[in-house]
Amino acid sequence: MLRKRKQPTPSFKLPAPFQPITGERAPLVVKGVYPYVAMMQVAAKDTKRDYVICRGFDVRISRFIDYEKGNADKPGIPVAKPYSKRTVGAYTVGQIFPAVLPLQTDNPSPVDVLWRVGQNPGVAKKTAGHPADLDEEVETLKDAANVYINWMLLDSPGGGAEIIRFRVLSQGPFLGESADCYTVRAEVLDTICGSSSVKIGDQVIIHDPSGCHFNIPMDVLLNAHGTAVKMADSDDDGLSNCWELEQYYGYYLNGCWWMVQTLCCVEDLYDYNPALST
């Protein structure tokens, strides 16, 4: 008696076993938990405009994907940021958010809507963050390795302005700045309660476009405390000669910059060292 081989055609993929009760064939791949919502934790420093590297449990494959820099066995998961928070430094390591698999059509209809990304968060072709209008094309979003991104964080832009309390470390103008760039490099002492683009101990560049706070000698400004608010870039903010500095030092916030809001009174600063007032 000849025994039939278990797999008579090893070079070809066999169909899944037939299920006589349902009339269908059993799935070869476990589809995971539906709907596809996962919890993702920011695992690497936020240095990309449109996405951040996270770790989390991928419900599609029932596996936790960890992250460790330089470890191919722990690659992490690139997760797109919400369009309203697509700036460098919007997230800090350790933050946890839900993430979803967004879906948009990838068929050619309607032809006048330039939004063909399929299962991908997409990215505005020209504008940082949200598209400028309904005519701007939304392209597929890829990571630095040219791999398509699937997940996108569920997060809101926040309900108020981002403010920090700082301590002055040094005074400009710095490399690439003109003489009318009133800037200081400062240490972050306090941040807003909740999500913040910076953390205590970080160094940031703070601008004084009006020239009414930082226009005093450095020996007076050194170690002075103050507050600053994050501002959106515009064509008439007078900072065109100041951006090279932030790009050079790595403090450029992709269209956002810190503007001094309050500073210790100059009279009080001189009182710290009476010899400066003579």
Model description:
The radius of gyration is 26 Å and the shape is elongated. It has helices at residues 218-221, 243-249, 266-272; strands at residues 18-19, 24-25, 37-42, 51-58, 63-65, 77-80, 96-100, 123-124, 138-139, 152-153, 163-171, 183-190, 203-207, 225-232, 256-263. It starts with 17 loop residues before the first strand and ends in a 6-residue tail after the last helix. A hairpin with an 8-residue loop joins β3 (37-42) and β4 (51-58). The strands form four sheets. Strands 3, 4, 5, 6, 7 and 10 form a six-stranded antiparallel sheet that branches. Strands 11-12-13-15-14 form a five-stranded mixed barrel. A two-stranded antiparallel ribbon has the order 1-2. The chain contains three helices and 15 strands. It is mainly β and 278 residues long. It folds into two domains: 31-156, no CATH class; 163-272, OB fold (Dihydrolipoamide Acetyltransferase, E2P), CATH 2.40.50.
Please indicate the count of domains.
2
Average pLDDT reading: 77
Give the count of helical stretches.
Answer: 3
The helix content, as a percent range, equals under 10%
Main structural class:
mainly beta
In one word, what is the shape? elongated
**How would a textbook summarize the main sheet?**
6 strands, antiparallel
Number of beta strands: 15
Radius of gyration: 26 Å
Query: In what range is the share of β-strand residues?
Result: 25-35%
| Termini Cα gap | 113 Å
How are helices and strands ordered from N to C?
A: EEEEEEEEEEEEEHEHEH
Low-confidence stretches: 244-254, 274-278
